[in-house]
Protein 1
Amino acid sequence: MTPINPEARANVHLIDHPLVQHKLTLMRKKEASTNSFRRLLNELSSMMAYEVTRDMATQDVQIETPLEKMTAKMIDGKKLVFVSILRAGNGILDGVLSVVPGARVGHIGLYRDPATLQAVEYYFKMPKNMEERDVIVVDPMLATGNSAAAAVTRLKVCTPKSIKFLCLLTCPEGINTMHQLHPDVPIYTAAIDRELNDHGYILPGLGDAGDRIFGTQ
Ligand code: URA
């Protein structure tokens, strides 16, 4: 088993809320249907969105309640971009957008070369003015870390204000790889599993997230 580098571990936010853990357990079960897997992912993603946006900047605005004027806080959701790593990242989008409906969405298409397990880019589409925006990259599984690191490397060319990484599950290998290449990118996850197998799958994990979301297994 690969140990987690302590510095890398310090950069991981484990979202251990009981509701998140409960739903994750239901998703892990092999008998969970596509329908319930997708619904649970949706619910989990919206809960995780609260945690990953906890330090989001707010602005003071002047409003009037039925009783008096006041200064109140609002976020500017339009400055936030959720970047989905295709295709499994799309399973997280509905949930996070239900919490921040004004956010923009970008997509990165990467496939894992089955021989080398390295990421190869085939699609990249981002909103304009990325240098004004905070980015949250979403992908349910941070496994080898190769796709995640490649996505972040590519995104950094657009010089966004900040980048965070949001996943459901990760493992020591994924955490260490991300930290080695992108120590400035915090990881938000609902669980750190034991290890990767020889095919790059997380153990105990939940199987192939894309197949389970889209029913293609
Ligand atoms: N991608 C998946 O969908 N599952 C894993 O366990 C690892 C990568």
Protein 2
Amino acid sequence: MRLFIAIALPEAVQDALADLGNGLPGARWVAPENLHLTLRFLGEVDRRDAEDIDAALAEIRAPGFPLNIAGVDRFGDNRRVRQLWAGVEPHPGLLHLQSKVESAVVRSGLAPERRKFKPHITLARFKSNPGDKLGAFLSRHGLFRLPPFQVDRFGLYSSFLSSGGSIYSEEAMYELAPDLAAVQAGEG
Ligand code: 2AM
């Protein structure tokens, strides 16, 4: 099984992100229902490891937090643009959850992730270079920002590569604890 751990996005957020999806030659836009924030890519995992990872993830105790999506940028350089993505602000609650997820995965026997966590939502990959249009696109959407939404769970997903693109399925869901900051703000 090809697995990853991610935060799902509300449909309204997926739709707002999908609205960015035009005006770039060579872009293969991610289908709106596939837009997500990856916490950890696991790759091919056998059933026993997957069960260990599931058990370790279910033990995570971490509070919910608000997710702020802001900015649009790319991975890759001018010669070879790889990905276009929407930025995600590194809220302490998000970083706390990501580090708990990372230790759960390593405790389950997988090798640690070497790359620094750079929270992002991939919007498009490229089959050919978008050229000058990319700079214009990035400046047009430089101030892109969505209203924050509250994250109260995360999930384990499988990814199946089909001829029509990736098909993601939710394999398990893990609830976060109440976000005390949000609860107190609501009471005040
Ligand atoms: P990306 O959005 O930056 O491409 C499912 O493929 C998720 O796992 C994607 O969100 C993808 O991140 C992430 N991922 C991280 N490393 C990956 C890799 N080596 N191959 C495929 N997906 C990877």
